[in-house]
Design goal:
The chain has about 525 residues and is α+β, with helices and mostly antiparallel strands. It is built from 20 helices and 14 strands. It has one domain: Creatine Kinase, Chain A, domain 2 (2-Layer Sandwich), CATH 3.30.590.20. A hairpin with a 4-residue loop joins strand 13 and strand 14.
Length: about 525
């Protein structure tokens, strides 16, 4: 009996449908700290030469003032996306002076909490709202957490592809509107991602070590590698472990990704449900806003997830409203570490593999996830980020405990036909080659990025700070030896000028009272479930 995956692959391999596979979009958001020449956190404001962090579409800041975020345009080929990301880096380096971009997900040695500046977006109500939200994050999670960097991979499939699948599904699927079918198909993709994303952490996790001052005295079970470095010997990604963005308030939030209605309902509840420890702090201290609300989440983006359903928002709209009104448009994969061996933080080979992996997640059967199954996926992920390279490590596949290597190899075999179909479309073997490279990592854990990081540290004094600074310097030399062309510089200079003018215009416009602005913003998240399934 052919499986759903094989039926769908045969359908998309048909000459009349094959073109829809080339129509999806890929975008990358890369976060990176600005540091000085000694590898210490920069204390300069966001460089005005880069434009406005509030309004620039490609160069902004995330949580800390020094945490740059580079956002590529969405492109149909990940190779083009990475070229765009390279261009943003080269332009940034032309404006950074002596500063460097940190090459790691985990931050450099950090100063005291009070000396880490929260990102500032100017005096407009929108800018102030973004700043106060980050004050709330600092209050809830600590500022050190706001210096962690990652790679976010934004992925969509051609809307025509969903229509092709819908037309060839059983009768029940055909009764859904195109919008509802697409939304539910993306939610099914996310459920499969939950099932199998431990594999990404083994293959691409690159943060097995961290600076010893990062934990700020918190209890931990890490081992000492050197005076300034803590680690776990078999870890793949401490960034994605319980040492990252975790807290008790969010611990009761389960993904609710069995349908869009329940996902939206769960987030709507979380942004409206008071949480006693936050309520005890209040929203203001000495008349100054310290957080946007005392609820489980201040806004829905505070839900820290490895993957999110997304929709491009319109001016003044909230993410929940966009999903309600127009359904899911793409997914955002948020668990990828910055690759410290790649100047832009991610390789083309990783992108090709992600495309095959995510298309597999989209086409493979994906039943609803019961709570006990969800707990199993969470446990598999947690084991992999802390112990992924441990010889003989087992995961639970729902039937039995199996070795990570054997399950990983089985998964790659299931993904292989997807990679081959993508290569047929391209007329080359890039996806199959990426699959081969991942199979080699499963056969030899020493080939994983996390193992390579540890090997590099052990060969060079065992200091995370020294290794990270050396990589940062190497990447800086790469970008500085390839400055932007005159046309590229003019393009980014123009974007910077427009963004600064837009921020100035917002600040010059009449502003409502900020308290009223926050109240209106918080009231705007009301979302009626019947809107989702129209």
């Amino acid at each position: 009996m052919p499986t759903l995956l094989t039926r769908r692959l045969a359908l998309l391999a048909d000459e009349k449908h094959r073109g829809v596979l080339g129509g999806g979009l890929r975008g990358i958001e890369r976060e990176t700290l600005r540091v000085d020449g000694a590898g210490h956190l920069a204390h300069t404001p966001h460089p005005v030469a880069l434009g406005s962090a509030l309004t620039h579409p490609q160069i902004t800041t995330d949580y800390a003032e020094t945490l740059l975020e580079f956002i590529t345009p969405a492109e149909s080929d990940i190779a083009v996306t990475l070229d765009k990301l390279e261009g943003i880096h080269r332009y940034a380096y032309s404006k950074l002076g002596d500063e460097l971009l940190w090459s790691q997900s985990m931050p450099c040695r950090l100063p005291a909490e009070e000396d880490i500046d929260i990102a500032w977006y100017g005096s407009s109500n929108l800018g102030t709202l973004k700043h106060v939200y980050r004050r709330g994050l600092a209050l809830r999670y600590g500022k050190a957490m706001q210096c962690i960097a990652g790679i976010h991979y934004n992925y969509s499939l051609d809307e025509r592809l969903w229509r092709v699948l819908a037309e060839n599904e059983p009768q029940g699927a055909k009764r859904l509107s195109a919008k509802s079918y697409q939304s539910e198909a993306y939610l099914a993709t996310i459920r499969n991602f939950r099932r199998y994303s431990w594999l990404l952490m083994y293959l691409f996790g690159a943060s097995p070590v961290l600076s010893s001052n990062f934990l700020r005295g918190r209890a931990h079970k890490l081992e000492t590698l050197s005076d300034d470095t803590l680690y776990l010997p078999y870890a793949t990604s401490l960034r994605m472990s319980d040492l990252g963005y975790q807290n008790d308030a969010q611990s009761g939030l389960s993904p609710h990704e069995n349908c869009l209605d329940s996902y939206v309902a769960a987030l709507t509840k979380a942004v409206n449900q008071p949480y006693e420890p936050y309520a005890a702090l209040g929203t203001k201290r000495d008349g100054e806003w310290i957080q946007l609300s005392t609820n489980v989440l201040q806004i829905e983006n505070e839900y820290y997830s490895t993957i999110r359903p997304k929709r491009v928002i319109q001016t003044g709209e909230r993410p929940i409203q966009a999903l309600c009104a127009r359904g899911v448009q793409y997914i955002e994969v948020r668990c990828m570490d910055v690759d410290p061996f790649e100047p832009v933080g991610v390789s083309l080979q990783a992108g090709r593999f992600l495309d095959a992996f995510l298309l597999f997640c989209a086409l493979e059967e994906s039943p609803a996830i019961a709570p006990e199954e969800g707990a199993r996926h969470t446990e598999n992920f947690a084991r992999t980020v802390k112990e992924g390279r441990r010889p003989g490590l087992t995961l639970n596949n729902g039937q039995a405990e199996v070795t990570l290597q054997s399950w990983g190899a089985e998964l790659l075999e299931r993904i292989r036909p997807v990679a081959e179909l993508l290569d047929t479309l391209r007329g080359d073997s890039q996806h199959a080659d990426a699959m081969q490279a991942q199979a080699a990592k499963l056969a030899d854990a020493g080939l994983t990025p996390s193992a390579k990081v540890l090997a590099a540290l052990r060969a060079n004094g065992k200091s995370f700070a020294a290794f990270a600074l050396a990589q940062s310097e190497k990447h800086a030399a790469h970008f500085r030896s390839h400055p932007p062309s005159a046309d590229e510089a003019a393009y980014f200079d123009g974007m910077a000028a427009v963004s600064l003018a837009e921020q100035a215009e917002m600040e010059a416009a009449p502003q409502s009272n900020f308290d009223d602005y926050v109240a209106a913003y918080r009231a705007s998240n009301l979302c009626h479930s019947q809107q989702v399934s129209e």
